Amino acid sequence: MLTNFRSTADIEGFHQHILMYCAKRYAYTPPVYRARNLLAALDNNMNVDRVPLMN
Q1: 27, part of any domain
Q2: What's the number of domains the chain is made of?
Q3: Does residue 20 form part of some domain?
Q4: Can you list the alpha helix ranges (DSSP code H) found in 1-55?
Q5: Region for residue 54 given its phi and psi (left: phi exceeds 0; alpha: psi -120 to 50; beta: otherwise)
Q6: C-alpha distances in angstroms, 46 versus 16, 31, 41?
Q7: pTM score, whole prediction
Q8: Are 6 and 21 in contact (CB under 8 A)?
Q9: Tens-digit pLDDT string for the chain (55 aa)
Q10: Is residue 17 part of a domain?
């Protein structure tokens, strides 16, 4: 029986947002990386409870 199951879907979605703003193929200075991470966090927080569009 699983009693302490936790889903990682939310954190994986947030990591995808980070990759949108901080691509791994570029090197960023620490202040720029932090600013891009904050932008990813703001974008994620603005869209976390959004209702998905239906066709």
Answers
A1: yes
A2: 1
A3: yes
A4: 9-21, 30-47
A5: beta
A6: 15, 23, 9
A7: 0.72
A8: no
A9: 556 767 888 889 889 989 999 999 999 999 999 999 999 999 988 888 888 888 7
A10: yes
